[in-house]
Amino acid sequence: MLILLLSLLVLLVIGVPIAYALGLSALAYFLVEQPMLIGVLPQRFFAGINSYALISLPLFILMGFVMNTGGITGRLLDISNFFVGRLKGGLGLVNVVASMVFGGISGSAASDTASIGSVLIPEMKKRGYPAQFAAGITVASSTMGMIIPPSVAMVIYAIAAQESVGQLFLGGVIPGLMVGIFQLAIVWYLSRKNDYPTEAVPFTLAEAWRQIRRSAIVAVMPLLIVGSVVFGIATPTETAGMAVAYGLLIGFLIVGLTSLKQLPGAMRAAILTSAKIMMIIAFSQLYIWVLALERIPDALAAYVISLDLGPIALMLVITAVILVAGTFIDVSPAILLLTPVLLPAAQSVGISGVHFGVVMVSGLAVGACTPPVGNCLNVCAAIARMGIGEIFLGAAPFLMANVLVLILMCIFPQLVLWVPSLFF
Amino acid sequence: ADFTFKYGNAQPESAIRSQSMKFFEEELEKRSDGRIDVENFFGGVLGNEREMMDQVTTGILQGTRGGFFADANPAFNIYQLPFLVADWDEMQCLVASGFTDGIEQGAATNGYHVPATGISQGFRAYTNNVRPITKVEDLKGLKIREPQSDLMIATGTAIGSNPIAMPFSEAYQAFKQGVIDGQHNPPQNIWDFKIHEVQKFMTLSNHMTGPDPLIVNKAWYDGLPDDLKQVFDEVAVEALNQSDDLYREAEGKVIGELGEYMEINSLTPEALAGFQEAVKPVYQQMIDAGHFTAEDIDAARAAAASCS
Amino acid sequence: MDFLIALDKRLTSVLEWVLIALFATFLVLVCLLVVLRYGFASSIYGGNEFVTIAFLFTSAIGGAVCITRREHIAITFFVDMLPYEAKKWTYIMGLALIAVINGAMVTYSIGWISLAGHNPWQPFGWPQGIVHAAVPVGCGLAVFYCCLKIVLTAAGRESIDVLWMPED
Ligand code: NA
Ligand code: NA
To answer: Where is the Tripartite ATP-independent periplasmic transporters DctQ component domain (chain C) (predicted)?
Structure first.
């Protein structure tokens, strides 16, 4: 049993990709402890990739790429700027608001960082904001891309935990909006303190109406996606497929034929992104099978019950574990590794799988913005040409909002569960 | 222990199928003087039903119970034929009969040992939101959820309903939105999935049930000494008898509770005859598929009636 | 060496077009199923199963392509601190280990498919071994790519500045 954990640790440290490190440590376990059962290896790999529900993964990723064309991001930034740009620290607020809206059409935090950051970071620097502030708020606000539905991370969790995608999507709505509102407050406070500039955008009703009309075609997207999944109009997989089609249509209407020419490249990128996550899912199935054979989750659950912590204290402990794990591991592998181990323990004290999942995804979103391993930081570092440590220091004040929301979610499960309870 | 019997099923530990296997574990370990160690894995932790069946095939697991019994012997499909038997008594008689012994022995050629066969969860009942089903014509045009099964879809078509294949887990939501009108399942399933909350009428049509064989890797079983083989088979028969009794008992109880949510009716003899007439084409379709013959069906019915 | 580099490029390009074609197939099928259901109250028999098959081959082959594209998710934080030669040989050892696990998958899939492969795949009734073949195909390609990369890296023809790309 020890061999399973130690070999995984060594393999990860020497830089073996997480997918294969999981497979190799399971292989080591079988060779040493259960040579008779080694034939299960290819079966579990196959079980991992044989999933209709997971087809939504490349589709949601492709949707993000398709919606990420310049024209669409531009319209979202325009409307955000029109409504909040004239306030103190205008572009900082625009950054957060745009991420709230963009979060609704993108399934991942990193694509949010890339699309909004590449426009706003240079613009904010030009207007006299410190580079660290500009990069920091971009990274921190992009966490909403994972929390506000749709969310690729929620889909992966839904499959790992066998929970409803629709309930998880809805569970992320209030926490996601809360993160945005708290971050707006922090931006506003820092902007007053440091006297950051405002944008000159005269307000007329006609212009307001024009902005709403221009953005509506994009902004209805989250409602269509969530509505389709929640009301069972189509399965999450079908919904993702239709969303790609809708995204292509909008892209075509806004930027014309160029959007279609980029399609094969976007498809290639989406399929490779999905394939590397699928490999982690496939090989983690070997690892999880060994854990089940050794009855590790049962033992952990029994241990947690013996501690007699109560749901709130346990949720806070789990959140701490998630935050620590998230600094070292990327989002999808962390979900796949932690869910089968921690969820039975959480359920043993009556915590629901939906509550647990939204807390986990929100916690890992913070991990995506913390060194040493954080994909939002990596993306931002490439855009802003800054070091990841520097960006993290800029993001830290805003990530306080995320941590505060996490703690509130642990204490008040209704923040997560209330919206799903209205529909399910 | 000299031998380890690793067993898995998809249902949680609290389910009747799992409970009867806990009985199997205790009894077999006791009566083999600890020479056979039974390790039960419930809740599908080692894989879904399809995957566990494959694990039995390749000797990773030694036993399973689930929906893929046709891999052991396609003739097991015969137990699912609509209106094959009249009631619990007949079905319990059938699974204990020489006819069933023959099908169990047929599994040997495919590499499986089947020491005993039970009844899967009991008999199916229709529920819907449109009207009470008092005769087969009442099902005409109703959109009924079916599992992805050729036999079930053929039956749904034969009785005049409009069968819609969808996962059972999505049925609850589909009822709420009125996408489908009804479904059919054993009463315990209806209760477990809270279908009664979103349905108005239930008809105890008892139109279908299914086999629940304990499927064992034959190579493992052949490795047991003769005395242990005998103990193993005896305990298996007792465990599946217990399983059938528990299902039967629970069915009566759960129908009572369902009555507080839905209007429940049974079929009159004339209505039953109408149903039996309507499903006749299904029998021919299944015979044409080659799993069993018309003679097999007659033999099964004779075996089912042999106890009374 | 130049031949191996050309082989890597050509094979990867062919496989990527196969992936795009498979992806396009299930994207169109998924949308078509919705349109058929709401527009024409009908369906394609086994449509979802076909989509699943296309997807699992895409994942298995894509996983191999991700090796040559260095797309896999790894923690390179510690290895990046090593001096050049040590980093290079650690990377080569990692590739060898990836070849080992994928080789094991190919080896053990033979017994699995020969035993369980003849059971029917619902609802087509095909032997499920046809679908299981995704495992040896994908993992076999992965072994091939590992060997190719080991030779090229050892010969100094591969940059080791960025070992594996982060998740995006
Ligand atoms: Na999102
Ligand atoms: Na991190």
So the answer is: 27-152
